[in-house]
Design goal:
Radius of gyration: 16 Å
Number of domains: 1
Strand order of the largest sheet: 2-3-1-4-5
Mean pLDDT: 88
Number of strands: 5
Strand content: 5-15%
Shape: globular
CATH class: Alpha Beta
Structural class: alpha/beta
């Protein structure tokens, strides 16, 4: 993989430390001479960032799970066309904070019984799975407390409470078994540096 692009995603419940770890991994790879694009979902492209505001701000009942799914897919398609695919094809490493696995959990399992619809739309409109997915596993109560302590306007999903986060955690563990060829589960109940060291070692091995 060292001469070609690589698509790495980070997944986990809210407050699990994904965003911090994506930045640390990007810094590590850049320090080792790799060309890295750091991005996020929903968002990552101009159109997708506009949709992000619609999804993450406002009341919990602003959208149904079905409407959320369509909005996420629209944002992801724009992100894929304008950033992810061109970067990977150019040999860059793309590190993305969330991707389709979050949709499989939030809309496919936790917010609605839509997993079949998620996979159908993903296959039809996206058609891309990550090369490696880092799943940071953390106690749902700890994660939610961290997420809410950040403040800000993007707390629509956190407002659903700890039950949603607990259901998400179990769902992600099941998803890691389903896609075991690309999932790496990392213990999030450690220091930031311990987690980062674990992630670095696995990614460096994948790039050999």
């Amino acid at each position: 993989m060292s001469q070609s692009g690589l698509f790495i995603t980070f997944e986990g419940i809210d407050g699990s430390g994904k965003s911090t770890q994506t930045r640390l991994l990007a810094d590590h790879l850049r320090n080792n001479g790799r060309d890295v694009i750091l991005t996020r979902e929903p968002g990552g492209s101009e159109g997708a960032e506009d949709i992000r505001k619609l999804l993450l701000e406002g009341a919990t009942d602003r959208w149904s799970a079905e409407t959320e799914l369509l909005l996420f897919m629209a944002a992801r398609r724009d992100h894929l066309e304008r950033m992810i695919n061109p970067a990977v094809e150019a040999g860059q490493i793309v590190i993305c904070d969330r991707f389709v696995d979050s949709t499989r959990m939030y809309q496919g399992l936790s917010r609605g019984d839509l997993r079949q619809a998620v996979d159908m739309l993903h296959n039809l409109m996206i058609g891309k799975e990550p090369d490696l997915t880092v799943r940071i596993d953390l106690n749902p109560e700890v994660g939610l407390k961290r997420a809410l302590s950040r403040g800000g306007e993007e707390e629509r999903f956190e407002a659903f409470g700890v039950n949603l986060q607990a259901k998400m955690r179990q769902g992600f563990l099941a998803l890691a078994e389903e896609f075991s060829d690309r999932f790496l589960i990392v213990d999030g109940n450690r220091t930031v540096e311990e987690i980062a060291s674990d992630v670095r070692s696995h990614v460096d091995a994948a790039l050999q």
